[in-house]
Amino acid sequence: MFKEGDFVVYRNRVCKIKNIKKKHLSGRDYYVMFPVDDESLIIDVPIDGSSEYLKEIITKKEALELIEKMPSIDVIDFDEKYIENEYKRLMSTGNREDLIKIIKTPYLINKSRKDLGRKTREKDSIYFEKAEKFLYNELALSLGMDFDETKKFIIEKLSENS
What we know:
Layout: E1 7-10, E2 13-25, E3 28-35, E4 43-46, E5 54-56, H1 60-69, H2 83-91, H3 96-115, H4 122-143, H5 147-160
Antiparallel strand pairs: 1-2, 1-5, 2-3, 3-4
Helix pairs in contact: 2-4, 3-4, 4-5
């Protein structure tokens, strides 16, 4: 069970537990939390049904291991017609490696399109930004950095390994 002040990942969003409401709705206890990137949004999650969607923040060691592993994580094998369905499916898994797949795939698609003088596709950019926000917010917290520092750190680590 989490406690007040803990940081958790709810679905893919990093949240801080503001408090715990006892016997709130239907006599159930609830975590009351807000996403770290939008403190105006309050999320109530029943404690007894939260295990499916709520998990601990990745540790610093795990974060560094995940960053080291990023180059070996495959991109999505996609058919342009169905890629958005695959983005949605991977976004819903709560798996960090799936978020990396989502970040890598639109990045490469849009890079290829730019290299050919074509416009980038909006849906690829939208999923890239969402996945990047979800993953980098969690890694930032684990690494003791802000979002931009984390992004820069990951780019530097990946360029060292190339």
